[in-house]
Amino acid sequence: AKGIEPNAAAVEAIKQATVEQKKPSMSTKLEEGTIQGTCENCAVEIKNNTIDMMVEKICQLNAGDKTKIGMILSTAKKYVANVRKDPSNPRFRNFRLSNKVFDRITSNPGSIELLTKLGFVVFHSDIDFVASIPLSVDLTLMGDVFDKLLTKYSS
Predict the structure, then answer these.
(1) Distance CA 126, CA 130 (A)
(2) The pLDDT of residue 88
(3) Average pLDDT over residues 42-63
(4) Averaged pLDDT, 53-80
(5) pLDDT surpasses 70 at 6
(6) Which DSSP string do the residues of 21-80 spell out, in sequence order?
(7) Which three-class secondary structure state does DSSP give residue 95?
C-alpha cells in the first residue's frame, strides 16, 4: 500500500484538526441540585504580571525605546491575523526566524521570550529556527491579547 506525500498528509491533518476545533464541545449537561462536600476559600494573589515584566525587560534591553515594543507586537499580530484568515494552511502557522519580516521581531533582545509567553512556539528545523502558532491556540483570544497590549504599549 502506498501512502500520500508527507506535505499533503500534514495539510490534511491540519484541516481535520481545524474542523474538530470548530465543532461545539461535548459538555456534560448540568442539572440543578444541591452541592455536597466541603468548601474552602482560596486567595490567589498575582505578584508579578509576567507580560508586563517581559515588556519592561525588552524596553531596558533596547535603551528604553518603547516604540520597539509596538513594532514587535504589531508584527506578531499580523502573523496571527494571517493564520486567522486560513487556519489550516501550515504556510501561515510556521515561519523562519531568519525571514525578513520576522527579523523586525528577532532583532530586538527579549522579543522571542515574549512571544513564547504569548503562545508562539520556537523550534529548530534542519534549515533554520522556526516560530509557529500551534493548532491548539485560540486565535481569537490571541488576537485580543495582542490588541490589548498594542493599546497599552504603542505610542
Answers:
(1) 10
(2) 86
(3) 71
(4) 88
(5) yes
(6) HHSPP--PPP------S------------HHHHHHHHHHHHTTT-THHHHHHHHHHHHHH
(7) strand
43: cell is: 486567595
Give pTM, 2 decimals: 0.64
- Computed from CA positions of residues 70, 72, 75, 78, in that sequence, does the dihedral angle turn out positive or negative? negative
Q: How many residues does the chain have?
A: 155
- How far is it, in rounded angstroms, from Cα 7 to Cα 29? 40
Give residue for cell 504580571: 49
Q: Are 133 and 80 in contact (CB under 8 A)?
A: yes
Contact 54, 114 (CB under 8 A): yes
When pLDDT is averaged across residues 1-10 and rounded to a whole number, the result is 72
pLDDT, position 52: 82
DSSP secondary structure letter of residue 109:
T
Asked if residues 83 and 133 have their Cβ atoms less than 8 Å apart, the reply is yes
